């Protein structure tokens, strides 16, 4: 049964219509309502939903237009002028037609004009104060301008920017703050690109196999034999997911019996924006082999198997690290070593940034260090795909900043589904923290 052939609501028809419009098309709520014979209120809600999804964008003095929704698979690491405006809380002084252009380089104009020429080229952004000569030079070189300190640009410079479609942006922040904001935004984009979501592993073009409550055991058996799968979503007449049915649920039943009284109701579902780590945790915690994937209206659009999720997570771990999260920044201060008995341990110095308001190691950072050490020790196991399920921490002594600590991890118990670890943190040969960590294997059925 192909669920994509089911009927759609007016709201979904509107979204489908908007998605099918040519990129760059202008969208009017009144025209939309008239063409699809719906109320203006219904059309307005669909347009707002399309804006949230990324199908359309509302621009000043232009209106609502159809835009290309960027795929995460092809997400660029480069920011556009328009994104920079939002990041620095700025406003556009000129060249607004070029806001969609991407940027590949950022230049701080803290030098003489003749020295700037070697750094500024097309596609770059000059970050500078109220230096009109620098503004003119940047535009001549094909670069946009970000004026810091809240200063304005001259009328002549604005006219040149409009003619060349090169944006001039003004921000109230100083140069250091602006550079920091842009740098953080670039790192955030790199981090988000590395975090894999359900949408990265499924294809919406593939046929989705599902059964209805009125389907018979024979229908299940035929679908199982055809697909080689043993678990299927159960949907209603509107394609809403209402349950899951497995081979175990129908064991011993007559082929002519319906499945309406035998499927598991209210199953756990995920959306396309659910992270693979969250999906893997659900599967491990609940013992789930297949997760139905639903849209905003809880309609079935695809499924994800445990094998798919785990393989994608393993592949992601092989990719180079992009960007730095707080966990990365904290753990980067530690190095691993082995003692004479070849037992793994970690050592690192507590920096001022890791301190609490009273000047000792923050308990939150303490917990991160313990968790990262446990994960590193778990990776040495034959089945290293685990998620921390429980952690009990005992803070025995405060740790002052700029002191070295040593973290030792001892594996207490390892089974097919769980492992338990004892983590000891010491400073000057005195134990300052102890923790008991329990982790569950992703693929431990």
TrEMBL record:
Q: Which CDD domains match?
A: CBS_pair_DRTGG_assoc
Pfam families, from UniProt? 4HBT_3, CBS, DRTGG
Q: Mind listing the UniProt keywords for this protein, alphabetically?
A: CBS domain
The record, for SUPFAM superfamilies, names: CBS-domain pair, HprK N-terminal domain-like, Thioesterase/thiol ester dehydrase-isomerase, Winged helix' DNA-binding domain
Question: May I ask which residue range the UniProt record assigns to the signal sequence?
Answer: none
SMART domains found in the cross-reference section: CBS
Domain of life, source organism = Bacteria
Q: Where in the numbering of this chain does the CBS domain appear?
A: 197-261, 263-319
PANTHER family, from UniProt?
CBS DOMAIN-CONTAINING PROTEIN (PTHR43080:SF2), CBS DOMAIN-CONTAINING PROTEIN CBSX3, MITOCHONDRIAL (PTHR43080)
Put simply, this protein is called CBS domain-containing protein
Q: Which organism is it from?
A: Paenibacillus selenitireducens
């Amino acid at each position: 049964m192909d669920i994509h052939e089911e009927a759609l609501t007016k709201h979904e028809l509107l979204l489908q219509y908007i998605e099918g419009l040519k990129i760059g098309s202008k969208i009017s709520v009144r025209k939309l309502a008239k063409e699809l014979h719906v109320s203006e209120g219904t059309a307005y809600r669909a347009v707002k939903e399309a804006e949230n999804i990324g199908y359309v964008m509302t621009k000043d003095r232009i209106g609502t237009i159809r835009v290309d929704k960027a795929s995460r698979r092809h997400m660029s690491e480069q920011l556009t002028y328009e994104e920079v405006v939002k990041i620095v809380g700025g406003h556009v002084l000129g060249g607004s037609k070029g806001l969609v252009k991407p940027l590949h380089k950022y230049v701080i104009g803290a030098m003489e004009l003749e020295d700037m020429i070697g750094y500024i080229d097309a596609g770059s952004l000059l970050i500078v104060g109220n230096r009109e000569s620098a503004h003119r030079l940047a535009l001549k070189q094909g670069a946009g301008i970000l004026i810091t300190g809240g200063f304005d640009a001259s009328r002549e410079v604005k006219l040149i920017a409009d003619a060349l479609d090169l944006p001039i942006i003004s921000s109230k922040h100083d140069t250091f703050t602006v550079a920091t904001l842009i740098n953080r935004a670039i790192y955030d984009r790199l981090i988000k690109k590395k975090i894999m979501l359900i949408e990265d592993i499924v294809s919406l073009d593939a046929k989705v196999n599902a059964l209805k409550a009125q389907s018979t055991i024979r229908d299940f058996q035929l679908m199982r034999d055809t697909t080689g799968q043993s678990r299927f979503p159960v949907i209603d007449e509107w394609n809403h997911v209402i349950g899951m049915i497995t081979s175990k649920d129908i064991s011993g039943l007559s082929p002519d019996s319906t499945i309406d009284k035998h499927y598991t109701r209210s199953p756990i579902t995920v959306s396309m924006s659910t992270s693979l780590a969250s999906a893997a945790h659900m599967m491990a915690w609940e013992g789930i082999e297949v997760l139905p994937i639903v849209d905003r209206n809880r309609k079935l659009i695809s499924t994800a198997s445990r094998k798919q999720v785990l393989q994608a997570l393993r592949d992601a771990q092989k990719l180079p690290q992009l960007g730095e999260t707080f966990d990365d920044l904290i753990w980067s201060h530690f190095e691993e070593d082995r003692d004479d008995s070849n037992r793994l341990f970690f050592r690192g110095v507590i920096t001022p940034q890791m301190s609490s308001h009273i000047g000792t190691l923050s308990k939150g950072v303490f917990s991160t260090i313990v968790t990262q050490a446990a994960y590193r020790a778990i990776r040495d196991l034959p089945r290293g795909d685990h998620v921390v399920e429980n952690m009990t921490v005992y803070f025995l002594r405060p740790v002052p900043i700029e002191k070295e600590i040593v973290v030792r991890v001892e594996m207490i118990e390892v089974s097919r589904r769980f492992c338990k670890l004892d983590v000891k943190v010491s400073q000057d040969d005195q134990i300052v923290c102890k923790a008991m960590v329990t982790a569950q294997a992703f693929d431990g059925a």
